[in-house]
Amino acid sequence: MNTREVEELYSKFVLPTVKRVPFCLVKGKGSRVWDLHNREYVDFFPGWGVSGLGHCHPAVGYAIKNQIRKIVHISNNYLNLKQAELAREIAKWSFPSRSFFSNSGAEAIEAAIKFARRYGHDTGRYEIITLKRSFHGRTSGAMTATAQEKIHKGFDPLLPGFSYAEFNDLDSVKRLVTQKTIAVIVEPIQGEGGIHVATPEFMRGLRSLCDEKDMLLILDEVQTGMGRTGKIFAYQYYGIEPDLMTLAKSLGNGVPIGALVVNSKIKKEVLTPGTHASTYGGNPLVCVAALAVFKAIRKEKLLQNVERLGDVLREGLVKLQSKYGMIKEVRGKGVMMGVELDRPGDPFVDLAREKGLLINCTQENVLRIMPAITITKKWLDKGLAILEEVFEELSKK
Ligand SMILES: Cc1ncc(COP(=O)(O)O)c(C=O)c1O
Questions:
Q1: Distance between CA atoms of 237 and 169, rounded to whole angstroms?
Q2: Is residue 397 predicted with pLDDT exceeding 90?
Q3: pLDDT of residue 43
């Protein structure tokens, strides 16, 4: 089958919820992927931030293969050793906590919303503040939490009780706090929103505000988590701890898993039996994959790799900025970088792909560069060289 024929199958049988590029990937290894016609690409945006360890990481593949031979799925009302081990592993890397496992980031956010509402129920508090330009997912609650009008359009009435503050503006959050506010949800780095990094003052200010008002600080680490910024979780840059944290994307390196991580400082038992559940959530297959991800991060010293190669990536992008005036700003942390242009980014994404490099564009003019945390200097340099060719060519147009 060729790309054209796959496209025809799509137009006949798949709902067009996403603007799809006529481009069909069939194989991946580390930071490289191959299309249907066996053309090779360097991948600077593996699986929309999901394949954090790169494609087909051998340890994750081995864990999955091994588990498939034993048991794939068991009912969540039985004890699942791998789920318990994974929850313990998350606590070890973060803070004393207990987790709930979902199948996606949006579902982890839904669980956080339900947790917050139930936490505040006795005192009549249910309002949640989120930040403008945020992204928390596409299910009804997560979409409402997402403070972007274009994502709400046509779906009103939305879930009641949400208000939207300015990112990195503590006063704007304070102005929205009412007697009924129970939580604030924030991404340490807004990913889909255009790679905007929260300032230490903002994050620490939110922590103090939440402590003062007995509100929950919910950090959405779906995109920033699992080492992408150089720390296992980005909140660790700020010297604070969240009350709740959501994870997904790289947690399973490609198998569908998300988590709501609840800080054990919260003494109240909130999501009691019968209040929340997921049939698939945290089955043995996805949990062994996530356990293998944590193990590889430790064994292969991947946080150090991000620190080292994150600097190379930043320097490479800053060098491009000094050469090409159309780059307004380079920002981000580790291997989660944004390049803001003074023009639309799609032609850059398209030309990069033609030249053998996969990148993404968000918010119309921010190129998003998020290579795997396993990337080597060789493939980072190769990708940066292609990117430079792209800028050179488009600067002449
Ligand atoms: C910060 C953040 N939260 C939540 C989500 C939603 O995750 P999912 O697409 O797995 O539902 C995303 C997806 O991009 C995200 O970036």
A1: 19
A2: no
A3: 98
- The CA-based diameter of the chain, rounded to the nearest angstrom, is 63
Place of tokens 């494609």: 55
Q: How far apart are CA 149 and CA 146, in angstroms?
A: 9
50 lines ligand 1 (CB under 6 A): no
Ligand 1 touching residue 248 (CB < 6 A)? yes
Domains of the chain: 3-57+301-395 (3.90.1150.10), 71-299 (3.40.640.10)
Q: Which of 101, 131, 135 to mutate to test the pocket of ligand 1 (most atoms within 8 A of CB)?
A: 135
Phi, psi (deg, nearest 5) at residue 71: -160, 135
Q: Is 307 exposed, middle or buried (0-12, 13-18, 19+ CB in 10 A)?
A: middle
Residue 104, ligand 1, Cβ within 6 A: yes
pLDDT tens-digit map of 52-86: 999 999 999 999 999 999 999 999 999 999 999 99
| HSE-CB for 37 with a 13 A CA cutoff | 9
Q: Are 256 and 281 contacting, i.e. CB atoms less than 8 angstroms apart?
A: no
Q: What is the pTM of this model?
A: 0.98
Tell me the CA–centroid distance for residue 349 and ligand 1, in Å. 21
If we measure between CA atoms, which residue out of 266, 261, 272 comes closest to residue 235? 261
Give the closest residue to 264 by CA, choosing from 47, 90, 82, 59. 90
Structural contact between residues 166 and 172, judged by C-beta atoms closer than 8 angstroms = yes
How far apart (Å, rounded) are the C-alpha atoms in residues 122 and 118?
8
